[in-house]
Amino acid sequence: MTDVRPRQPEATLAPEQSPAVPRGRRWRAGGLRSGTTATLLPAAGLLVALGLWWLVARLELIHPAALPPPGDVLTAFSDRPARLLEHTVATTGEILLGFALSAVAGVLIGLALAASRTVERMFTPLLVAVNAVPKITLGPLLVVALGWGQKPILTMVFLLCFFPIVLSTATGLTTTPAELAELVRSWNASRWQTFRKVRFPAALPQIFVGLKVAMPLAAIGAVIGEFQAGEGGLGYVIQQYAGIGDTATAWAAIILVALVSILLYAALVLVERRSLPWLRETTSTR
């Protein structure tokens, strides 16, 4: 009789394992790559835009009076640095002050709309109507009503900025996750506790969306206001130098408006990340 023995399992070679990388080192490496990408990609986009600008100006696809070459604009920067800096500071101050006023008022109005269905139904059509009016048509009326200077400019910034903030605040406060609402009900929390601990923190991502939409609009509002009623600022520079045919200096002021908008937007994104550190961990990333 043959001896039947159980077949021994064949030995398998374990795959070669890579040495474990400490979590902190992986995080630092990922952060370094992310920071490098965040720096290089905007720089590459800027170089592409400058190259296209130079090519269009070189081929004269657009008349040089309307789009001067990049070299002429750079010369305008170097010829009037102090004057351009002075007006940049003035415009930046108007953007920040008008944005702050619209942020406070927008959040308060959004709170009122979210707190009462009656208030929402009464005033939402009026807010939509105000937002639908082309703001540039109000410029002369603001000058007549408020005079020259900063008041009509700040009013123009406010009118352009407040609606996205109102809308995002009201939306965030009325879309509290159902599981959180049920949780606070089970704790018998008061209305103020519910607002402070759950509803407002849950609405902050939406509120920041409205703020980020409103920030570039603040720059647009400041420039429009300076066109109509300004005695200084980059909008005033654009209007004055374009009027005398110095479009290179006008374009230098336009570029400064864009740079100020980019820097203020980036600062707002940084505030959002510092204020909501949990947001990136609880949402999907690209």
Automatic annotation (TrEMBL):
Family membership noted in the UniProt record: Belongs to the binding-protein-dependent transport system permease family.
Protein name, per record: ABC transporter permease
Residue spans crossing the bilayer: 35-56, 95-114, 126-148, 154-181, 202-224, 250-271
Gene Ontology cellular component terms for the protein in this record: plasma membrane
Lineage, uppermost ranks: Bacteria, Bacillati, Actinomycetota, Actinomycetes, Micromonosporales
InterPro entries documented for this protein: MetI-like, MetI-like_sf
Entry coiled-coil feature ranges: none
One GO term of the biological process aspect: transmembrane transport
Pfam families for the chain: BPD_transp_1
Residue ranges occupied by any ABC transmembrane type-1 domain in the UniProt entry: 88-272
SUPFAM superfamilies, per database record: MetI-like (SSF161098)
UniProt membrane topology term: Multi-pass membrane protein
Localization annotation: Cell membrane
PANTHER family: ABC TRANSPORTER PERMEASE PROTEIN HI_0355-RELATED (PTHR30151:SF20), ALKANE SULFONATE ABC TRANSPORTER-RELATED, MEMBRANE SUBUNIT (PTHR30151)
Keyword Electron transport: no
Keywords in alphabetical order: Cell membrane, Membrane, Transmembrane, Transmembrane helix, Transport
Region called Disordered, residue ranges: 1-26
